[in-house]
Design the sequence.
């Protein structure tokens, strides 16, 4: 496992991220960290072991008591992580920039083609500000609606009658 993988694996756990946040303020002894994250000392010890193995923290002896180990952050793994994140961010910035350029080209192409007009004076895609229902318009102007489920003019019943009168009813 390379350094970046070890860093990301160690930071995958929320308890270890909380420990990192606490250590950003200042170096701390394990007991203080355990109390701050509300965890037993043996349980926190396992998390500290992962953080040490990944190189994110190191332990040093305290000045007053050599038995007390102070845990502190190491700069290098975070610098490497930031460098990798900068590369990923640059990739996405380039991708989004290319996408923006594409959208602008398509939009300007659409603007140029919108200068073409239909015979009734509207441009393509222009509805004239009103929505027409599918099917026939209602010339009577009343609230009755024509059947327009299939978009074909005329009533479905009329078509059945016409076929039956022509003898094309199919033997029904």
Sequence:
């Amino acid at each position: 496992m390379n350094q970046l993988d070890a860093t990301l694996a160690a930071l995958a756990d929320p308890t270890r991220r909380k420990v990192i946040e606490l250590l950003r303020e200042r170096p701390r002894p394990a007991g203080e960290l355990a109390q701050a994250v509300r965890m037993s000392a043996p349980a926190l010890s396992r998390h500290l072991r992962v953080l040490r193995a990944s190189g994110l923290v190191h332990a040093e002896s305290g000045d007053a008591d050599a038995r007390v180990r102070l845990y502190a952050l190491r700069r290098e793994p975070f610098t490497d992580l930031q460098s990798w994140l900068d590369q990923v961010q640059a990739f996405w910035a380039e991708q989004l920039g290319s996408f923006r350029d594409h959208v602008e080209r398509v939009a300007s192409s659409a603007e140029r083609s919108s200068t073409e007009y239909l015979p009734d004076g509207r441009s393509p895609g222009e509805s004239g500000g009103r929505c027409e229902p599918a099917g026939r318009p209602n010339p009577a102007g009343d609230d009755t609606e024509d059947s327009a489920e299939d978009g074909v003019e005329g009533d479905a019943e009329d078509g059945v009658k016409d076929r039956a009168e022509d003898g094309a009813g199919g033997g029904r």
In short: The first helix runs from residue 3 to 11. The radius of gyration is 37 Å.
